[in-house]
Every structure is written in C-alpha cells, then in structure tokens.
Amino acid sequence: MTRPLRILMSPDLRDRKGIRMSRQQRNRQIAAGNFPPPDGRTTDHPQSPPFWFETTIDRYIRSRAAALRRAASSTSNQAQPTRAPSPAIGKGNIG
After folding, report:
1. In the predicted model, is pLDDT for residue 81 greater than 80?
2. Per-residue pLDDT at 59
3. Which residue range forms the structural domain that includes residue 17?
4. Is residue 54 domain-resident?
C-alpha cells in the first residue's frame, strides 16, 4: 500500500515535523545545500508560499539522523587519551 502524497507548508515543518527554523534561516540552509529546496509553490505567483512533499522532508530527517549517528560513533571510536596511573593511596608506602 502506498502512502498518500502529503504537502507540507512552512508551519507544518514546525508543527508536524519539529523543524524549527525561521524563514531566513531555512533559506540560508537551502542555499548552503543543508536543507532540501521546496518541491514547488502553491501558485505561479513568485511570492506564493513554498511547499515540500512529506517524503522529501522525511528523507531529509532520516539523512540528518544518520549523519548525527555517524558523527557520534566516530567520536566514541576514537582512542581515548591514556591517563597516568594515580599514585597509590593507602597502600602502606608512607615515606
């Protein structure tokens, strides 16, 4: 069974998907290639609001989560710095 095609407007990004960005921040992220560009506009007018298909945003969320998991695993896999052994306290070696 296929999912119905849902269209998300800017408020839906925040309310339904938890993406909290201002319009300006979102446009900067789109220009930098860090956020998917809109799939279209509601009308042909140049100032009409953009929309995204829900599948586009879901794919973005999954790729972002995978990148964060990779980053977390790479930092945990790095060698931990070795520490010098602490001096023996209470072992009977009083000078």
Report:
1. no
2. 96
3. 7-72
4. yes
Number of domains in the chain: 1
The answer to whether position 93 is within a domain reads no
Which string of b and e fits 16-41 if b means at least 16 CB within 10 Å? eeebeeeeeebeeeeeeeebeebeee
In a domain, 83, yes or no: no
pLDDT in tens, 13-71: 999 999 999 999 999 999 999 999 999 999 999 899 999 999 999 999 999 999 999 99
Asked, for residue 56, whether it belongs to a domain, the answer is yes
Task: Return the pLDDT at 82.
Answer: 61
Determine the distance from the C-alpha atom of residue 30 to the mean position of all C-alpha atoms in its chain, rounded to a whole number. Answer: 13
